[in-house]
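Quick log. Single chain, no ligands specified.
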Amino acid sequence: MELEDLKNEWQHLDRRLDHLEKRMGRMTAEVAAGSFRSSTDRLQRHFRLGIVLCLLLPLNFWSILNRHGEHDGRALMAYITLFALVALVRQIQASKRLRRIDPTRQSLREAGAAAVRFRRFFLRSVCICFPLAVGLLLWLGVWMRAEGCEYLLYGFVAGLLFGIPVGVVRFRQICREIDTLQAALEHLEA
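-> predicted structure:
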């Protein structure tokens, strides 16, 4: 009788352990899916904000160039518009590529590969936009200096001192979000 009771108890505990393991697996998958969704949402918000800023950039500089423009600013305005268009295309493409990463409609392997492609695209697009941004900033600095409006130049320098650290922080946040996205996909796969 004792052996039979021990055997039954063992089977009961074994079934309970299996149930707990399945439940833990479901909970882990739910947490990973939530992490994936929140990372995707944060990245999409960033790209939507980037789209709005790219649309507003030429309008902002158009008013500055017209208000203070003793020197001809048409070439500079054309460069600003070119930069804004390149950055706009980059933001739209990044948003589209991010939407392609969907573990519910594709296998986890495909979603993981899409996340790696997204990361590569993001880093390449930064490498393309960075020289354009540096050229724009140099040209704006030279133009503002030539205008002789010292307050405009002070605002430009203050904007650089504030904007560069903010840009670096945003870049690092996006890279961390992409890492979180990839980690969530790996947890879903496991």
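The mean pLDDT is 85.
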